[in-house]
Each structure stands twice: as structure tokens, then as C-alpha cells.
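Worked Example 4.2. Consider the chain below.
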Amino acid sequence: MPDPKEIEELLLGGELRYNRVDAVRLAGVSRAFSGRVWRAFGYPSMPDGEVAYTEGDVAALYRIRRLMDDGVLDEDGVIRLVRAFGQTMTRLAEWQVNLLSSTLSESPGEAPDPGAVRTIVEIAEKHMEEFEPLVVHAWRRQLAAAGTRAIAASATRAPGSSATRPHITVGFADMVSFTQMSRELEELELARVVERFEETASDIVASCGGRLVKTLGDEVLFCADDPVVGGEIALTIAAAVKDETEVPDVRVGAAYGPVLPLMGDVFGTTVNLAARLTSLARPGSVVIDEELAGRLEARPDFTATPIVRRPVRGLGIIQPYVLRRTRAKDR
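Applying the procedure from the previous section yields the following C-alpha cells:
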């Protein structure tokens, strides 16, 4: 079995040579601040005298301090940024290790045997220089997309007007009968169904030009700046999953309105309304709110049909619409 310390140093890209006192002194930060940073990254607390930090750790602390020294962010802003990186990279790292382990293991889902562990280490040692640029490239691509969306939203705001929340389409796609299915399938089979559902939904969202906000196992949350794109995503997911033999049908609910973007997520009444509409949809169908229906009304390829008005907890009486594609003979 490979030595854990050697593996850690290999993946960290440097020797463990500093304790916490040394790292704090070399980076020029306070002990309290370094503690906030490590916790935000998701790192465990280490005794002051334990050698657990590399040159890279010291450099990271120094760069974070520079962001404050240059006035880019205050301390709270830096911690929020670090937490975003930490939470994102935690999931990415677990995903990568699980993917390699499943690929090399004779029994996917179980801990890899010593031979598989050695193979994983060899892959990391040989291909780390290929993996790392991919992470940076993906981040830059997504940063460019997010920046472009922010510029577009700013351009549509009237000169001299006060800041307002962006208006977007928010949608949920929810697998039908997931609770029952989770009782009937083995854990590995259930995981494959969830992975297939998330893969299908995320590919559709990306190809249509929307954004996958998050996945929740049996549910995905997506958004789109353009109502037409939002409607297209909703209908395409419902149709694509219906054709999937391995994944049960989904219900999709979508609404258009103001949202509060925060920490990569979206919040607000529009999000709550989309979630409520999802519960009203039948398997394989899409239900939207009145605002989104109005914005799609002029589109010849969509048909929005009103259904019974009904009370929704916390939102009062709402008018739902079933969204369908317009058949050729109806155009």
C-alpha cells in the first residue's frame, strides 16, 4: 500500500514542511485569519506544531491577503470567495476519486483494493499536469459566461435607475416516484439512475444556453436569461427523459420573474413558484406560470394552455399553464 504522506505530497505538489505557526508567519497573516481561511476551504484544524502545510499553502494565504491589501475584497468577501472554491472543489475531488475508483474496481461502489489504489496514484503522478489545466480552463469558461451574463443584465437596466434583481426563467425537473424507486433498487442501480438523469438534464441545459444551478438527486434546478430558452429547456428535458428507458418520467415546473443570485444559487418568490408548479405537473409534462406563458405567447412553436386556477401555500391563487410544442398542423 502506498505511503499516505507520499500520496498527499504528490497531490499537493510539494513537501509538507511547515507547521501552522510557520505558515502564518511566512504569509504575513494573523492566526485568527488563517483559521477562518482554512475552515472556509473545508480543511480540518491542525495543532500548531504539526507539520501539515506546503509552499503552496503559504502562497495561497499570501495571495488571499493581497486581495485585501489591494482593496479587491474585504475580509468577509475573501472568506465567502474561499468558501465557494472550497465547496466546489470538495465535490469535484470526491467525484474524480470515485470515478477513478469505480473504473478500476471490480465491485463499483466499494473501496478500491490496494492494487487499484496504486494504479490511481500512478495515474495521478503521470497525468496531474493534464488534469490541473482542465480545472482552470473550465473555471475560466464559466467565469467568462457569468461575466457576459452580468454585462448583458447591466446593459438592459435604464440609465440612472436603481439596482434591481435580474428577471430570469427558473425551472425544476423532478423525477416521478423517486421515493418508491429508491426502495426497490439497490444503491448502485439507484446511483446510476440519478447519474443518468443529471447527465441528460445538464447536457440539455448547456446545449440550449441555460445554466444548471444545482442538482438535488431526484431534482435539478436550472435557469435561463431568455424566456424562450427556458421554455425550450423545460420541454426538451421532459421529452428526452421520457425516451430514457433507465430513468422515470419527470415533471417540470418553470416561472419567470426576479431572483436573488447568491453563492451560485438563486432565491426568491420566482424560485418558490417554479417549485410549486413542478408539483402540479403530470409525469412527462411542463407547467409554467402566467408571466412565462405571456412571454411565450407570440412564439409559434409554443402553446401554453391554462388549467384550473388554484391556491398555493405562501403564494395565493395562481394561474398555471401547461406548456407544449405547437404541432405543425396547428401553426
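The mean pLDDT is 86. The two ends are 67 Å apart (CA to CA). Compare this with Example 4.1 before moving on.
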